[in-house]
Structures are given as C-alpha cells and as structure tokens.
Design brief:
There is one protein chain. By secondary structure, this protein is an all-alpha fold. It has one domain (3-216). The protein contains six helices and no strands. The N and C termini lie far apart (49 Å).
C-alpha cells in the first residue's frame, strides 16, 4: 500500500478512536450519575466499579490512540501544529484533556470506587460527573473543528512536506500494539506510541530546518553593488 492509503488509515484510526473516547466518556457520565442519584450502596459500588473498569480498559487506551494519531497527523502532514488556528485549538484541548483525565479524573474515580467498596455512604462527586461530561463535550467540539476548519491560518510560510510512508505505517501500528499490550498487562501503556511520536518530531525538525533557514535569509536583488544588473 502507498503513502496515501496509510495516511487514510491513520485518519480512520483517529476518527474511530476519537468517537470511542467520546462514547466511553458518556458511559462514565451515565454510570457516575446513576451512582450519585442512588441511595443503595450496592448500586453505587456496581456503578462506580463499572465506570472504573471502562476508564482503565476502554477509555484510556482509546484516548491515547486518538491523541497519538492526531499528533502524528499534525507532525506528518502540511497541517502542522501551529499553522492553522483550528489545529492549534485541537492540540491544546487534547493536552488539557489528557492531563485532566490522567491526573485528575482517574484518581478521583479510584477514590470513589474505594469509598463505595468500603461502605462509605458517599455518592460520586458532582465534579467527577461534570468532568466526564466536559470531556465528551470537548471531543464533540474537536469533531466540529475538524469539519468546519474555522479561523484561518495562524502562520504563513512554505508548507511542510508530507512524511514518508513508514511514518503513517507506524502511526497505525503503534497504538494498536499498545492497546494489545495494555489489555495483556491490565492497564494502558502507550510506550511504543510515545517512542514513535518522539522519533517523528525529531525527524520533522530536521526536515523543517532548511525551510527556516531559507525563509530567514535576506533576499538579494539581481543588481550588483554598483547598481547595475549583475547579469
């Protein structure tokens, strides 16, 4: 298969993993809302435990795959990270989502499960419910950005080149391998995706260096120092 086909597969994987991420965020929102509204501790334990399993086994791997393929598409095509406002907005939103999901929501969800299993009559917090709802809403907004592509260009200049085929092959293979390994070990482990992304960012920087030098070089007219045409 050629570069175009592998690029299309990368876009396809990005789309389905993003839709899956949003779907699992909505599932967490529903389960946590059930836990919050129930006075039966058995229901709270069941709802929060299921939410925790979904977060670990489905949401986190899909979120990693969605973010990785999005970053790779930016790093491997002329879109870039900062050339268009809509791409930059998606990039910033994704970073915020990953930080909130890994360091805030997942920890709060584990605490909620532990409290429910310990018999502590404490429903899922409204902050946790609101967080999962905001996560799903943010993904929906990013989908709109991808379709509408609003606000124009943030930067001008020559378009970066499209990456070679191996980059898109790695963009498809790495998250699938990481998801498989994560299922085997019992927790998400996007190690290969991070390695591939690091390699691509390094190679892209080398590719863009000649363009940056050419753009910063002063333009020389066709006339010599005497003001006469050098030709």
């Amino acid at each position: 298969m050629g570069t175009k086909t592998w690029r299309q597969l990368t876009v396809w994987l990005h789309v389905i993993s993003s839709v899956g991420w949003m779907g699992q965020a909505l599932a967490l929102f529903t389960l946590l809302a059930i836990s919050h509204g129930s006075e039966d501790n058995a229901v709270r334990v069941a709802a929060t435990s299921m939410a925790h399993e979904i977060d670990s086994l489905l949401l986190a791997p899909l979120a990693n795959a969605s973010a990785f393929t999005g970053f790779m598409l930016a790093a491997a095509t002329a879109w870039g990270f900062t050339r268009h406002w809509w791409v930059l907005a998606k990039f910033v939103i994704t970073l915020v989502q990953l930080h909130a999901g890994i360091f805030l929501l997942s920890g709060a969800l584990r605490d909620s499960v532990a409290a429910a299993r310990a018999g502590i009559p404490e429903p899922a917090s409204t902050t946790l419910i609101a967080g999962t709802g905001l996560m799903a809403s943010a993904i929906a907004f990013q989908a709109w950005l991808s379709v509408a592509k609003p606000w124009g260009k943030a930067r001008t200049g020559a378009k970066p080149p499209t990456a070679p085929r191996w980059v898109f092959v790695a963009a498809v293979a790495a998250p699938l391998a990481d998801i498989t390994v994560g299922l085997l070990v019992g927790y998400p482990l996007p190690a290969l995706s991070l390695i591939v992304l690091g390699v691509r960012l390094t190679s892209r920087r080398r590719e863009l260096r000649p363009q940056a030098v050419a753009e910063s070089a002063p333009r020389v007219s066709g006339k010599g120092l005497s003001g006469q045409d050098s030709s």
